[in-house]
């Protein structure tokens, strides 16, 4: 990972669980590509705009800890 990517992940530590982050950052946190994130859908998506989706940060944290199984 690049230093910029590590910094992005570190900045999410202060965000609340209800915060919605975009798919590229969610994929980075889950160590997978955006394509894999969208196709396998390990964390439920939240539609932000017509073309943009995001993921709830609390669900991503649960998935990382192993508390949330794949959908």
Walk me through what this model shows.
The protein has a three-stranded antiparallel sheet. It has helices at 3-11, 23-29, 34-40, 57-65; strands at 20-22, 45-47, 53-56. The mean pLDDT is 89. It is built from four helices and three strands, in the order H-E-H-H-E-E-H. The chain has 71 residues and is an alpha+beta fold. The protein has one domain. The chain starts with a helix and ends in a 6-residue tail after the last helix.
Offer a few descriptive terms.
71 residues, 3-stranded antiparallel beta sheet, 4 helices, alpha+beta, 3 strands
Spatial strand sequence of the major β-sheet: 1-3-2
Strand content: 5-15%
The helix fraction, in percent, is 40-55%
| Tally of strands | 3
**What is the straight-line distance between the termini?**
27 Å
Whole-number tally of structural domains: 1
Brief overview:
By secondary structure, this protein is an alpha+beta fold.
């Amino acid at each position: 990972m690049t230093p910029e990517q590590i910094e992005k992940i570190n900045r999410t530590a202060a965000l609340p669980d209800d915060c919605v982050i975009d798919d590229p950052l969610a994929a980075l946190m889950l160590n997978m590509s955006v394509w894999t994130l969208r196709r396998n859908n390990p964390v439920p998506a939240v539609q932000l705009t017509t073309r943009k989706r995001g993921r709830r940060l609390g669900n991503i944290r649960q998935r990382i800890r192993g508390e949330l199984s794949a959908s």
